[in-house]
Design goal:
This protein is mainly alpha-helical. It has helices spanning about 1-40, 40-45, 60-65, 70-100, 110-120, 125-135, 150-160, 165-175, 180-190, 195-210, 210-215, 225-235, 240-250, 255-290. It is globular, with a radius of gyration of 25 Å. The two termini are about 40 Å apart.
Length: about 290
């Protein structure tokens, strides 16, 4: 009986290992495919894409991407949008969540119902576009920041976490003369670094990867974020200008796919490199805010 059980356990471990390897391969292969093709030399890239390893390594595609003023400006806009948008989202959402986490707040149930409706239903593209235009946010950098300052889902995570903080900490601060904002910024926020890191990660990933806002609300080239430019390159296949730039700089015509893959790597790597440093806070922040007591 024990031998059968040991065999079953061994078979389960083998199957589990095989499944984990398969999942890792499915997850990592597309990224490796793009990276390998972005390094492929022009003379080999024109013959077709590679599957595993470039036949000859060349950084010409990356040189074209980094020497393109529009791409670098898009990188700057995306970076500023991510930093400012994440800070504004965390600050504003935390303030709203702190107020709604108090059961003695007048009209709390009404506010929660209104907030829930905004999560389930939206006004649609045309009314939202008209609203942004009336607010003066059309073709404006702040169209990336202001509409994304609050989300109901992240507010609920903040609320759940704030309720785990002992009331005695807040009461002792108020006895010492602290106001509600003083309690929030001096007591609650410093003790909520796990959930702050979690929400910051959610917001930063959204701001970095979002291209839709730039497609709908931005017309000025200097305000286009990197992801919107990448979307236009892939969707419209508009590589002729960058190919001409490569011809002028290196005397060789780079294939459109090589420049496209290099642009995808430049747009993706920063957020991938940022994620491991904050990953350990992710599960901790969500779990602490989700478990009562």
């Amino acid at each position: 009986m024990n031998t059968r059980r040991i065999r079953r356990i061994g078979l389960f471990e083998v199957v589990n290992t095989v499944l984990m390897i398969a999942v890792c391969f499915i997850t990592l292969y597309p990224m490796w495919f793009v990276f390998a093709n972005s390094l492929n030399a022009p003379e080999h890239a024109t013959l077709g894409t590679v599957n595993w390893i470039p036949k000859a390594i060349s950084f010409d595609s990356y040189r074209v991407v980094f020497s393109n003023e529009n791409m670098m400006n898009g990188f700057y806009i995306t970076t500023m949008r991510t930093v400012i948008g994440t800070a504004a989202h965390v600050l504003f959402t935390a303030i709203v969540a702190y107020g709604l986490s108090k059961t003695n707040l007048i009209g709390r149930k009404i506010y929660m119902k209104i907030a829930l409706i905004t999560m389930l239903f939206s006004g649609g593209l045309i009314p939202t576009f008209i609203l942004m235009t009336k607010l003066g946010l059309y073709d404006n950098f702040w169209v990336f920041i202001i509409p994304a300052m609050y989300t109901f889902f992240n507010m609920v995570i903040f609320m759940s976490f704030f309720r785990t903080i002992p009331d005695s900490l807040e009461e002792s601060a108020k006895v010492d003369g602290a106001s509600d904002y003083g309690v929030l910024f001096r007591i609650v926020m410093p003790n909520s670094m796990a959930v702050i890191a979690t929400i910051s990660l959610f917001s930063a990933v959204y701001h970095w990867n979002d291209y839709y806002q730039g497609v709908i609300y931005i017309r000025t080239q200097d305000l286009l974020p990197l992801q919107t430019m990448l979307f236009k390159i892939i969707a419209e296949n508009s590589m002729s200008f960058m190919q001409q730039q490569a011809m002028a700089q290196f005397g060789a015509r780079l294939p459109g796919n090589s420049i496209k893959f290099a642009s995808m790597m430049v747009a993706t790597l920063p957020i991938l490199l940022f994620y491991p440093f904050i990953q350990r806070y992710l599960v901790k922040g969500v779990m602490i805010g989700a478990i009562k007591g």
